[in-house]
Each structure stands twice: as structure tokens, then as C-alpha cells.
Amino acid sequence: MNRRRFIQNAALTAAAITVPTSRSATASLADQSSASGDPGWWMIEPIRWLQTNLRETDAALNPRQFIDDVEKFNANVLMMSAGGITALYPSKVQYEYVSPYLPKGQDTFSDVLSEAHARKIRVVSRWDFSKARKDVYDAHPEWFFKMADGQPAIYNGLYQACINGGWYRQKTVEILTEALDRYDVDGCFFNFFGNPAADYSERPLGLCHCDNCERLYRERFHREVPQVPGADYHAFLADAGVSMSITIRTLLKSKRPRAALVGTAPEIGDIAYGEANTAVRRPLPLWPYTASDNSNQWRNSYPDKGVVCQGMSFIDFPWRFATVPQPEVRTRIWQNVANGGAAAFNLHGTIAEQQDRMAIDAAIPAYGWLKDHQEYFVGQRSEARVFLLAPRGGGVGFPIAQDSYRGLFRLLTEQHIPFAAVENLNWIGKRDADLVIAPGPAPKPLEAFLQGGGRLIIASSAAPEFEVAQAVKLWKDPDGAYFRIRDKGMFPSLRQTDVVFMRGDYLQVKAEGGSPLTFIPPSMYGPPEFVHVDWKDTSDPGLVMKSIGQGKVAWLPWDVGGNYYRQSSEAHSRLLSDLIDTMLPDGRQLKSNAHPLVEITFMRQKDRHLMQFINLSGHSDTAYFNPVRMTNIEISVKGNFHSARAVRSGQSITVANNNGYAQFTLPVLEEYELVDLR
Question: Reduced to 3 states, what is the DSSP secondary structure of residue 108?
Fold first, then answer.
């Protein structure tokens, strides 16, 4: 978000609900549960995924026409609504609500499944057990979410279920058993899985205080469910999601062993799944790397899973038939595939009924090109040798502030440094890394990585979990602080700059020897006559360099990543760029004169390497426009390559090899290009 094997019959009949009591047990059982033999279709086939969130009224759709439209979309995987809140098939399970629009004698889901399979289109069934109708609540109120005031959480007449209640733990298994016995689906996806913090209208729900949650929490932590979630509650809820995920997985694999599990706890599923989306109330600035961010993290954190990051076609929940700009639609598709994920697109309702076709008209040609060149879009693995630790998400990841992470993500992208974003340390001992960057407290296992010769940059006022320097004082957001650059040799790009500013917290530490960067405490900044007349330099380090074992760590005890994300200071960019060059023992993996808004990924696919270019020059604030055409992009990449071909433009490119680098020039970049290197 325990790992014993859950027995299906027990899940169907259990009167009491149990959840794991430790995260270590949870991790162990997740590893066992997600282990499998041969790779599933989601690992060995190119995927062009289309999600259609169908409504109750769509139960009356024409299956053949519907699949005609899916086929014309160039999709080869359809995720289609099946049941949960509303069934699009004639269920006989008590409380499973069948759409009143389902024509008599028709099984819409079955007919669509048959049509799709006849055309070699896989079907992933979409389920939503997060809510049920009033008759279910009236019969079993104990199955449902109870807010702190004792009231149920109701949204448009539907009652929010609790992950620890019988609707999930018993009826879900019963409903799925019926469906899996009937339908040979290629996968099952679960929407809104678990207990949400808010409803679709962003109304906070608080924590669930149902009898099951109260009892289970009390048994585990010996106190009542709190009013505000803390680490214990997050672990409690995550473990509940894991245990329910294992119950579903056990059932699914017993009925349909070749089907993919999607949308449950990330440790348990077969496909790491999420969205690249917008929301009108989301704080600005808009994050233009959402699809790359998600696909990069998941591909590198869970290399044994498929990756699907849905490109949401609509602006926000209240406006599901108003689309985002066409260049944004295409950018998300290119970012997904450039980072080793599936092409993925979402729409609401049927394709034929879209009220604004602009998003569809952008996606279809992109999917068509991917279909024509599908041999490139399966089995890609990142060749990046710089690793960026990523923040918590879905109960995993590190305790890193989003701004801190995004600032370093953006900087590495702008500097054209291939990097792998990771939510775990499972890569240690399995993949080589030239450099690891931690935009938050560095976890203890990285000490062994350093001892073995690793390189680490820490950019955080939170002390690492191993000794680097002794903490003296935490300066809480000093107003008007700077750092003085003492070593211009280490920071050659800042020869004309003597100080850089800092916002946020600074952890004053003791360090041996002098520091190349030293702290300048706040001084007067107004009125103009008084500006910094009381300026006082110190020897307190803004950068600690230290050898640990055979490795080396550079600790910036302040949030340079968050500063760069918010202010985009050129001084911060140059400081980090120079520090990265200092810490890379054998130089950068890739060098380029490409514009900073050209995103470059470097992947391996069996016996060839793929370099992919995404032109983001059309992004401006909250807008997306067609990008500016670019020419003569020079590339030097470590390795010995002899041929290159720009697949999109169809051009062969001359490659030269010098001093361990292969060099070539990409003649032109429109929106996206794929270079096949051999």
C-alpha cells in the first residue's frame, strides 16, 4: 500500500476480518504473492491501452459497433466497465446491481468480450467495489465507511464501502467468482480501491470509524482510531489494502491464471497503474512530466511488472466531456512509451458518443504509428546510471517532499542526464549506478552502497539515517539567507557568481575541514539604505563532502531541489550541474546541445539501444501548443555504436566513436523521435 496465503473459501465465509500486524510481514507476503513463473502477456506484448469508463446507460451499446470503434482507434487492449457499482451483465449474485438499461436477454460484457477476442483485442474488466446502493447499506450497515460523526459517506446516492468491511471482504469475492467463472478476461482492474480521503467532489471524509476498523486498530495498536492519520494509521490502511489484494489475486489466478491484476496494492498487482491527469483546483505550476514521472518510477521500481499510466482525456471530474489540449494528449503518449511503459488513453462513455473529439483525433494517429512500429515498444529497460529516489506513493516510496523531488527530476531532464526514478532500494546489487541522488533523508541501506564504492548526493535539511556530519542547529526557513561559493574550481559555471540564495530550512552541521559552500545568515533587506549592511559570513557548511568506505557522499543540508522547482534559479541549476559532474567518477553518460525542453531517454531492448526524444517546447504555464521544430541536435553517449536510424523520420544517421563515446547528430525533431542505435 503479511503475508500468509489467503484461502479462497475462508475469504468467502469468514465472519471476522483480520489484517497484518507488521509492515515487515506485509513486505514478505507481497513478495511471495507477486512471484510468478512465465511472464504474462503484459510483459511480452506491445500494449496500446484504451480505457472506456462506461455508464449504466451504455449497457445497451451495440457490441460490434463498439469494438469496430476500438479497432479503428488502433488499440489492442480494452479496459471496459464490468461491474461492482453497476453490472453490464446479468449477474445473479445478491446485491450486485444490474444496469436497468441492459436489454432483456443480452449480456453486453460477454458480447463485447467475444467481439474483441475475435479481433485479437485483449479485454481487462473494470470493477468498482468502493460504493454500493442504499438497499445494501440498509441490510448491512456494518460493511460501510463510518465517518467520525457516525454517519455514512454518501455520494450521489451511493454508500462508501470500507476496505475492512464485508462488502469488500465477502461480496466482492462472490461477485468476482461468478464473473470469472463466466468470462475469460485478460485482466481485472479495481477502481477507487480502498478507503479514500475524499469523494469525487473533494469533500474530505476523514478516517473510517466503523466497528471493523475500530476493533482491528485497537487490537493492533491498543488505542482507538485517531482523528488525524499518522504513520500507524497509514500502515494499518495500507496493510488492509494488501490483504484484500492478496484475496483477489488468489481468486483471480485460481480462475484465470493468465489474467493480469491491476489497480490493487502496488506490491500485489501485475501492472503498476496510475494516471497522468489535470484538475482545476490543483496547485500550480502544472507538472508537464507527469507521464514520464509515473512511467519512469514504475518501470525502474517494479521491473517485473507492466506499466500503464493512463492519459486522461478530460480536464477534471466535473467536466468529463471537455478534453485537454491535443499536444498534451500526444505528449503523455510519447512520455509513456519513451520510459518503457504502455501507450494508454482514457475516455468516458463510448468512443462514438464523445462530445469533444479533439483528444481522440490526437490519440488515434499516435496509436496508429505505434501500431506500425510496435516491435520497438515492448521489453524496454532503462540504461540510466543515475538514480533519483522518489517520494511516497500508494504506501511505498521514501518520505520526500514532492517539490524537492520534482526540482531534481526537472533539472536532470533539462540537463539530459538519463536517470531512473526509484521508490525502493531493490535495485542495489542488481543494477549498477554511477550516482544516487536523495532529495530527502538518505535511508540507512545506502551506507552499504557507499562502502562498496557508490556515489551519493543528498539534498535535504533532514539528516541521513547514517553518520555524515553532526547536526548543530536547524534554521527554520531563515528569511533572506545565502550561501557563499568558496571553491570556484568545483563550481566553474558560477565563476561570475559569489552567492546563491536559499529558501526553506537549513541544517547547520559540523564538518571536518573547510566547505566549498558556506552559510550566510539572514540580514536586513529593507529599507534599501540598510540592505545587508549587517551581512556576516560564517564557516558553517552548505555542502559536506565525505568519503565513506570506498564511496563518496556530498550532502547539501538544505532543499536545493525544492528551491529550483519553485524559483528556477539559474544559479541553483548551475550549482547542481557542477556538483553532479564532480560526483560522476567517469563523466556523464550522455551529452547534448539539445534545448532544455527536449526530454531524452536512453533504453535497451534486447540487442539494440533506443534513444527517444520528446519536444516539450510547446508547453507554457497551463497551455500546450505544437512544439517548435528543432534541428541538428548533437548527441554523445557512452558506448560503442556503429549505426543509428531515426525511425519516425526514416533517416539513417552517421555515427562516430571517440574516447568511449558514440557521437551522432539528429537532423530534425518535430514532436517525437525514436533513434535505433546498434
Answer: helix
